[in-house]
Amino acid sequence: MKNEVRVIIPAFNEERSITRVIDEIPSNKVTEIIVVDNGSEDATADAAKKAGATVLFEPANGYGNACLKGMSYIRDTADDTTGIIVFLDGDHADYPDEMEKLIEPILDGQADLVIGSRTLGHREKSSMTPQQIFGNWLSTRLMRWIYHARFTDLGPFRAIRWQSLKALHMEDRNYGWTIEMQIKAVKNRLNYTEVPVNYRKRIGTSKVSGTLKGSLLAGKKIIWTIFKYW
Questions:
Q1: Which of 35, 7, 164 is nearest to 98 (CA)?
Q2: Which of the four CATH numbers 3.10.20.30, 2.60.40.420, 3.90.550.10, 2.40.50.870 does domain 5-228 have?
Q3: Which of 122, 133, 155, 217 is most buried by a 10 A CB count?
Q4: CA–CA gap between residue 179 and residue 116 (Å, rounded)
């Protein structure tokens, strides 16, 4: 991939937002935008195709499943040494045009992994639920106490060297994906940093934090993942 940047966007029923997300990605910085339709029941895939993205299908529900599908595609089509992968949600809560801030420390040789921190940036009012805010606080504190990790957020907007990502041997198939990556980055002694990113209200209702059941399942899985790798 030779410093090429590819974006993986897991998407489930994001017909209303996915075009706006793709349109706001800085096209002069990105080689390919990969949308992984994770069993959508609406026209997410059609909207993504019309916006110019490569569309993959992963019928097995789960955020991690969608990310792994995107990785498998890159491994088969662009497996080189110096590419960068950006993960971005399809709900328009992040600001895709801030992508340059995420990839800059990697291009400068200062980091292998960069997390877009909503905690360090500006959050629009009500863009995160109280359980999300508390869950981030608790998870990052536990990572600091157990792994001496310096993270402030589990934000999904992130960039990582392709070769570093492969070396982590990611395996989580749902809610534990983001924290698994951060824990394994620490344990594998990757250079990592955070940059402030802004965050707004998503388009539509969250499939995780928008319901009590989703929040509880996600919280349980995240805590379990923290102790799994201890």
A1: 7
A2: 3.90.550.10
A3: 155
A4: 13
Sheet holding 158-161, edge to edge: 54-57, 32-37, 5-11, 84-87, 158-161, 113-117, 192-196
**Per-residue tens of pLDDT for the chain, all 230 residues:** 678 999 999 999 999 999 999 999 999 999 999 999 999 999 999 999 999 999 999 999 999 999 999 999 999 998 876 799 999 999 999 999 999 999 999 999 999 999 999 999 999 999 999 989 999 999 999 999 999 999 999 999 999 999 999 999 999 999 899 999 999 999 999 999 999 999 999 998 766 655 556 677 888 889 999 999 98
Domain boundaries, the chain: 5-228
Give the separation between CA 204 and CA 90, rounded to whole angstroms.
Answer: 11
Residue 169 CA, distance from chain mean position? 16
CA-CA distance, 15 to 22, in Å (whole number)?
12
Could you give the CA distance from residue 165 to residue 95 in angstroms, rounded to a whole number?
23
- For 106, the token pair is 């990697």
